Amino acid sequence: MTTHTIEDDRLRVRFDPRTGGLVAIDDGRLGAWLEGTLAGSLFVVEIPRGGDRTVVVQTTDQTLSSAHQDEPAAIELRWDEPVSSTGERLDGRIVVRAAVTSGRLSLSMELSLAEGGVEAVRFPSIRGLRGPGELELRGVDYSTGTRVSLLPTFDSNAPYWGTIFPDYASGNLRPELVGNPTSPFIAVTAEQGGLTIMPAEPSLEFIGWRASLEPGYDDSLARTAPGDGAVTIDAIHFPVEGRDTVVLPTVVVAPYEGPWTASLDVPRENQRPTRRSAAAWLQEPRSWLQVQLMSTEGEPRYDFDDLVDIIEECARAGIRAVQVVGWNEGGQDGRVPWHVPAKKLGGLDGLLRALQRAKELDVATVLYVKYVWVEKPGPHWDDLAAWVSRDPNGQPYAQPGPVYHTARKRYGISTPWYVPLCFGVAELRRRIADEVALMAEWGADGVLADESLYHGRALLCFADDHGHEPGVSAFTWDAEWIAGIRSRLGDRADTFVIAAEGAYDAQFEHYDVSYFRSASAQHRPVGRMLRPDARIVTALTGFDDRSMVAQSVLYGYGMSLEPYNFKGRPADMPLTVARAAAADGLRARLADWLWNGHLVVDGRAQLRVVEGAADLVSHTEWRDADDSARVVVVGNMGAHPVDVILSGLHRDCAALDLRGTPTRLHEGRVTVPAHDAVVVAPSPLIGTP
User: Fold this and answer.
1) Which of 131, 362, 558, 619 is 20 to 30 A removed from 62 (C-alpha atoms)?
2) Contact residues for 546 (Cβ-Cβ < 8 A; gap 6+)
């Protein structure tokens, strides 16, 4: 029997003629990706039977019923009366449609089983991946690139008692980490290229990504695979219960050639536009101060009169935005999800005075809010218990709540539970919108929705009284609830800032700003690379935070100044405040590039380190709206200066340090101090400060 083949001029894909399993992916550039003796999988349907919840319908057990192919680049595969792993023949069918277009494989599945009961579907399940050379798994979490070794070493995070093979996937405490939509793609990468795997269209369905190693470790201490080891990649879907026919989102497998950054090309093509706020204060470089007035432990660290003093101090220091945290009854993260100005801090009148003083000084104010959870026990539990996300057994999903200051909280002795709310409840969304609109009436310039990137342990909600089908994705309404707030804001919809924490890629289409933390020398700015013109703000907590100021300019991040982990005020970190102010001054001079510009991924500029350690040196290239010129930033996060040579620059360039002072640039060679950055731009752009 000959294999079933689909192909275009760039990609050839083959399916086993007996089972229909996927046996070859060959893009003609890097060679075959699948090891023939292990390949042959395509789907695994988890369908519990007779008290055994491990029963599956998998490709390798099937006999293909038909293969319909009208053109070289597409095929329809069909399996009638599929057979389970226990030998039971099921009444129903599975249909897979595969097509190759522009060198990319798209796979879609439709299945209908009379007995129902499908809990999960692994599709595609690509077994036997070996590829050319060492393999890694890459994705994105919290706007930061993830990197996991697959071969020859395999970095498993699996609870080994519950798996057969080492694997890497989400755990059940943070189940969204390795899955769509928070990571809308994964890439299996080798030195010269790889495979990007993702939904064909943007989707808020939860799809879990999993890599596993067969047959397991050769050396478990070294975590090395045997010579015949290979990787399986699964995209795991969770169909809504009760539907007669299950139709899964189409998944694309896209080979690419080049460095791992080329794996981002397909995700960028798949995006909708990034939202750009009309708020004038976001159009210019402004560092923020984040300050916590009170925590859940009830200590009035600063009252609203103190907040006025802090705002005035910010204005004097050139800090022109403040994120106010813990202003509400219960303190930061307390008595969620509703927010009322705390009486012990001065009540509503005190907060209004602070917001008014900020307006007088042109210091933007952003109020911290938290709407994902309801606290149990807590004052709002009885009112909101009916609206929480529930598991298949009707129980609320829950996890430990906030940890602040005290030993009992640190060790979880007296920590309340956080229970995720279901945003499928229209009345909940309306009440949130009403509360945010009230904050706008008070005079706040915006809100920051903490932990808005996920829903805790609730990936799906199985409630039957929320107005949605049981088992739908908890992410379904992530855009809708923000749209509801904007509708309620009326004339202020475009200028009142709604910020997220750690926005996942699709959320950049709806939020004005994303705040996160990126303090790592190995930070991989995948969120920025996916959204080259998005507003992203990162935290600086060091008292002389040179590296983080440099990182912020390098990747176009706004700076959130947070002395004592945002319990302090500007005078507590004078060195960092001064460095941030100088860097923002430089960015203001080059705002069309370094603030309102667009990151150019894999641009024209090339960098070579000629003296010093290269491992913590990187560069970015920025263009303005018209691409009239390019500006390059070189960052050195290492502890010693480095000399680099830049090529591909404008013929007449000059270099500036982050204080805006000219620094020597000769034939493309420039010295970058330790924990610092240098900006290189065409001389006419720099002018004089």
Assistant:
1) 131
2) 579, 674, 675, 676
Sequence letter at residue 636: N
Residues 261 and 620: their CA atoms lie apart, in Å, by 13
Res. 88 pLDDT band, cuts 50 70 90: very high
Owner of token pair 């640039």: 665
Tokens encoding 244: 């007669």
pTM: 0.96
Q: Structure tokens of 218? A: 């050769």
Using omega within 30 degrees of 0 as the cis cutoff, is the peptide bond preceding 152 cis?
Answer: yes
Tokens 């475009």 belong to 494
User: For residues 505 and 496, what is the distance between their CA atoms, to the nearest angstrom?
Assistant: 21
404-457 residue pLDDT tens:
888 888 888 888 999 999 999 999 999 999 999 999 999 999 999 999 999 999
> At a CB cut-off of 8 Å and minimum separation 6, what does 164 contact?
none
Strands (E), 184-282: 186-190, 193-199, 207-214, 230-237, 246-247, 251-257
Residue 689 has pLDDT above 60, yes or no: no
Contacts of 63 (CB under 8 A, 6+ apart): 18, 19, 79
Q: From residue 345, how far is each of 61, 291, 326, 351, 449 by CA, in Å?
A: 67, 14, 10, 8, 22
Task: List pLDDT tens digits, range 249-293.
Answer: 999 999 999 999 999 999 999 999 999 999 999 999 999 999 999
**Contact, 218 vs 166, CB < 8 A?**
no
Cross-strand pairs, 606:
647
Q: Are 214 and 230 in contact (CB under 8 A)?
A: yes
